[in-house]
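step: validate -> pass
step: tokenize input -> pass
step: predict -> running
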Amino acid sequence: MQAGNVLPADLMKINENEDAALSNDFRDKLHDFAIIYTAYKQQIDDQYFDSHEVLNLLSDYLGQQDLSSDHFYIADFSKLTAQECRLVETLIQRGASVTVSLILDQPYRTELPEQPSLFYQSAKLFLRLYQFAAQNKIAYLPPVYANRPRVKDDLLRLETYWIQSSGLGKITADRQVDPGTIQIYQADNQYSELDQVATIIRRLVASGRYRYSDFLVLTRHLDAYAAILDPVFTTQQVPYFKDIEKSMVDHPLVDLLSALFDIKDPSRARNYRYDDVMRFLKTELFVPRDADGQPMAIADYRQAVSVTENLVLRNGFEGKRWTQDEDWQYVWIADQDDSPALTDRDRALTHQVNVIRHLIKDALPPFYNRFYKAKTNAQAAAILYRFLVDNGVVSRLEELRNAAVNQQDLTRSDEIEQVWRTFCSLLDETVRILGDKPFIPQDFWDLLHAGFEGANYSQIPSTLDQVQVSESGIVQMNNRKVTIMIGSNDETMPERIVNESLFGDDDVAQLQDSLADDQYLNDPADARWPLSRI
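step: predict -> pass
step: emit ->
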């Protein structure tokens, strides 16, 4: 709604207009949404700027500046939101010239192409900007066409075929191509497919005519290859960079925090359950330290956790067994038992078990006693932060970051820094917005977890000579010599677009008819379908 320049007052006005062609169900939905939208704007307007608000402020600012000697160039867009379009219109009004590069087959000055059309989105943007210039009596420069092909004739034939196949007309494109230019491979499964790709890349690089940076590997949905991409390319010794947003929600720090909130809940009868405690320990961020503050060797820690897990599973230990004063025994010998005494191995295993048990017993109960007595969110945030610092979690993250730097794994080291900065930022925002509100543990964690779910790592390639692995929906550079499409089947080409937003395609169509010219929402799925074919 914000990107479309639609404000809560606009929705209220539309909903109150009895002449608006809205269904009863949609009116009810729009009424409730407008109330939530109004409350949201009231909460953030005086404290925060989001990307949508910044665009409006930039448009207002540039509208007051002298840009008469400035020339602007805009490329790689097929559509603009209403806010983005307003910014471009401001540049058109104030600037010396604005040049926009669009992928089109012809100028669309009076009407849009008949759907389905591959060029519908770009044509819609062209028509809007052209009409805006005409209405404001701004000179329109004649169109400039890209007449010099960037690719070989075979790829042009493939392009022509896709353009014709996206419409309803007859396909007349030449389907004969040179096998040396366009090749098709078939694989039985995704692992075999990636293995073929890695082999081809290795062979071409070994020929001396290519570098790894000359290759671009694309697929519609990269998450389908998430589990096998690294092992296949690492085994084949193919350096690669995965150019896709990666969520922070799976980082060990987030898992540790999640387990910390799950281990003990005062409203729950069963606490210190097996799954929760083991998930907490296996993050390897909460490690025992000696009197000098040195962490336990990670191999010894893993062995101790493994032995403890076996004992817990064997005996069903949970709840108060973790916090009892009496040490656990890995091997129990009754007083009347005449069998041999404990061996040195048994004593060593018992020691390992109790190192882990004391790690839990000595640290968690005091934390929970303070944490669940917090009155406000600000107090809870301070207690949680101090717990992580005092128990070596922050130091452990620093050690892992430094180890990654020493191994020249800059991506992993940067991820550690980013997830910690995000955690601190989430705590700061929680305190700033809800610091004086009553502390409700589940709401507190839900807020933090939602922040991690919405946060992604900012990634940069660690070296220049790497294979780029990305999704076909992301804009790419045009300097690659070889492009390899994987996962190309009838499930993804064309893409099946499903609108999963609050407002369905019918709702958007009803609302769009009642909006002003400078307000518009995303096109329905059927208008975006032709573009998804390529």
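step: describe -> The longest strand covers residues 215-219.
step: cleanup -> pass
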